[in-house]
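Q: What does the assembly look like in three dimensions?
Context provided by user:
Components: three
Sequences:
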Amino acid sequence: MTAVPVRARREHAVPGCLFVAALLIPLLTDNLFLQDATILVLLWAGLASAWNIAGGFAGQVSLGHAAFFGLGAYTSTLLKLYLGVSPWLGMLCGGGLVVIASGFIAFAATRLRGPYFTLVTLAFAAVLQIVAARWYGFTRGNEGLSIPFEPGLANFMFTGKLAWTITILCYVVGVYAIGVWVARSRFGYQLAGMREDEDASEALGIDTRRLKVVAIALSAFLTALGGTFYAQYIGFVDPGYVLSIDLSIKFALMCIIGGLATPAGPILGAVLITALEIYLRAKWGGARSGLYLIVYGCLLILVVRVMPEGVLAGVPSLFKRWRGRAA
Amino acid sequence: MDVLPQLIASGIVLGGIYALVSVGLTLIFGVMRIVNFAHGEFLMLSMYLAIGLFTALGLDPYAGLLVAVPVSLAFGALVYFGVIRPVIGRPHVVQIFTTLGLSIVLQNTALLLWTGNFRQLRLPYGDDVYLVAGAAVTLPQLIAFSVAALFTATLFAWLRFTYLGKAMRATAQDRGAATLMGIDTDKVLLLAFAVGTLCVAVAGMLMAPLFSTYPTVGLQFVLIAFVVVVLGGLGSALGALVGGMIVGFLDVMGGFYVGTAWKEVLYFLVFIGVLLVRPAGLFGQRGAEHLGA
Amino acid sequence: MLLELEGVTKRFGGLSAVADVSFGVDQGQVIGLIGPNGAGKTTLFNVVAGALRPSAGTIRFAGQDITGEKPHRICRHGLCRTFQLVKPFGGLSVLDNVVVAAFTRVRERRSAYAQAEAIVEATGLKPWRDAVARALPIGLRKRVEVARALATQPRMILFDEVMNGLNPTELHEMMDLIRQLNAGGLTVVLIEHVMAAVMTLCERIVVIHHGVKIAEGPPADIARDPHVIDAYLGEEYLIA
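A: Here is the predicted structure of the complete assembly.
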């Protein structure tokens, strides 16, 4: 859907602004809400970028990425609570576990296309959610797991928002950089060929199976890292949230709105969606619950139809079309 | 064991209902290649319709079917023109999110209008029990199954023997060729969507006396519908019937022997298993999963 | 023998789309594969190129047994194919289409681009270098298909009805291009219905009918072969 290569300099503008703004906010303001929102926007931006590698670049639309997120969150949390393992190490373990689990999804991707693949990813995450909810002895089921607040770098737990912001900023910048690398690399070009036409790319020497496995594993790994961050930041992990379909949809949604298969798209999408959610919830959420979601849903239907390539590419092209008509 | 006939009867009744819920989904996918994630919400709306007709007009859901048929066809057509048609032929991502968006809108509209309270349609004769082959079946269950069976049979006959039905099957198999044969595929797609909506609406009316109604009730059944449809083969009406029966039995047996929560895991495992081993399902088009669309 | 087919058979259920087909292609030749519609030519290509597994028979390329190998591996061996219904990378520019293919042989971005630019120039696509592939007319899309195949540095290309739907000018240009490529050392196998092209370009023609090879030989012999004429009765073809 989008052309390769990335128009490097201009595209970095959007994420660049976000990163700088995000760093400045905890330094310049005392508004806790704003600081918290910033951290969450950054987290979503990172997670959406991670999803984009499999869903956007590789064209494997997964609606089950919460499985990886949740596995990451649970792994580091369980290792910490049962074995006292440092969450940093737990994070890597979660990542490793998730890479193995992603093999299953990658297998499905090599056998199924389009909606069939998406359905399997949905089922995969759903199974994990049910298992986590029912395995009370291990995961405390729906009650969830709480992580005791013991601040310290080794514990991956901080008192000030600034430290959290810096940590999550490292994550997002890292994932974004990986996205940029993917877009410009041989890997990325082959992915582009694969998502445009899988059969043609096979005939041109591209090993689509290997591409899918790598893209999905990478995407899953990065998602799991975000899961650990979330667990540490919020201090609470429960299957109803970290393994929920709502979360899976959110990752995909941000990329679709922002722009698939471009590194800056998910970043923009995360900002827009989070801002929209906050705005809508403030305006309509309280008094009439659900109204803001109705608006949300309608916007989704409209944007996806009018700007399927996402806002990043869509707005300039709509603008160009408009000007063309006026002239 | 005395409980077996009961389980079987429940399985049959449930199977018939699941088949009806799923046949609409499979019709829509088979003809339009669109996975309607809002299918459950259509069901939910029709259940609320049944409750509304009963409380406002004292109409039985069975009499209410007379209302539900035109209303659902009109609703289906409306949704088709407003939401579905613009995204036909577009990339899967677009279609998935369009129907997902619709699902969100419908769920929350219901929540807004009717609150999240669980409602139950209680028919005066709702608890009348009949003994059928050693199993106790309530009247609403009996009616639900009979109407579902009759409706599904009529649908099959319609698909098989009428021009429109054949046109639909032709379009499902090869849209390009169908156009070349002089079939107005645009109208067929509209028809498929409307009829698919009709099927699930009828199911909803029949289910209202049997299940609780609440804004997210659709989620529970759409999952089952997906399992049925994948098992039976996306696009195959016969598959929806057979799949529905199988899942109905799985549901009842699973619920009895394994418990409700693990029953869901069972569905999902069957689902994943079928998709990986034989994605075309029992009666679907072989290789369809490679075509994607 | 660069390409050797021995007893290649492909069955779908009870139907033999391709039955016991054998022939060989030497380095540097231009071979035509003709036959009435539905004869099994594209199926044969699909089997050779790895898109389908043969039910029986062997395929050897450059001495190596490639029977049943996956398409991308066969491409890496040096055997590439184009598609009857062109499959461009629609959302990418013409240049990027070729770059993607170039990456099969080259790992570095700069060399991939350099190679792609050269091929775009050589196939006369330079004026459309930055055009989005899906916006191009069929003639140009066919050329992009050829350019892409070339970027994989093949020793042999299987062209599946590459002349289909081209106007006379485009036809001549495509024929010239193939002649040029062959002169440069590329071995070519053409599935074609455009008889003028086949008769002019090919030094040898293989005729398939109902999945079976019914004739093989130089164009002049094929034009006179009673089996071939028999097979084509009922279809209108201008032979010569």
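Follow-up: The mean pLDDT of chain C is 90.
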